[in-house]
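Technical note accompanying the year-one report. For the benefit of new consortium partners, we illustrate the data format agreed upon in the data management plan: each record pairs a sequence with a C-alpha cell string. No post-processing was applied to the example shown here.
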Amino acid sequence: AQHVVREAYPGTREFGDIRSLTREVVSELLEGALEMRIQVCIAGGGFPCQDVSFLNKFKAGASGERSGLFRELIRVRRLFQAGCASRGIIYLGLGECTIMTHADARTIDEQCHWPRVEMCSSGASRVRRPRSYWTSRLLTEKPGLSLCRGGPALRGRLWGPLESTEMWAMPGWS
C-alpha cells in the first residue's frame, strides 16, 4: 500500500508508526494545511488483519496485539477531527481491514462509531477481495458503486471495466 501511495502521490508525508502521531504533530500538519489553503483533510489507514482474518485459525480477535492497532486509528481520528473542526477544515476519515467475524466487526463498530461498509471489488477487478471499511461519512451510490443494506453494515460492490492482467505483475517480473 505504501508503494502505491508513493507512486501515485509523490510527496505524501508518511508516518512509519501510527503511535508516533501526537496532538502536536497533527496540529503542525493542520497549520501547514491552512497556510496552503487546504480545505479538506483525508486521513486513512488500515490495521494488521492477522488477528481477525478468517485465514488465521489461531486468530486472537479484535483484542489481539496486531489488530488492536485499530484503537490507534480511532485515537488519531479524534486528534484530526478536533484539529480540523477548530480550523474550519473538512475532515474525512477511512479505516480498512479484511472481512472478519461478526463479533470482531461489532467490537470495532462499537469503539469506532463510524458506519461500516463491507465492500467487494469483484465487479472492477479480477480478484475477489472483500474488505470492511469504516468511513466518517455515509457513502452514497454513484456510477461504479452500488450499495445495499446487509445487516449491521452496508454492503457495497465496485464495478467497472476490468483491469488488464499486465497490471498484476511488477515491471521486469516474469
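Partners are asked to follow this layout when depositing records. The mean pLDDT is 81.
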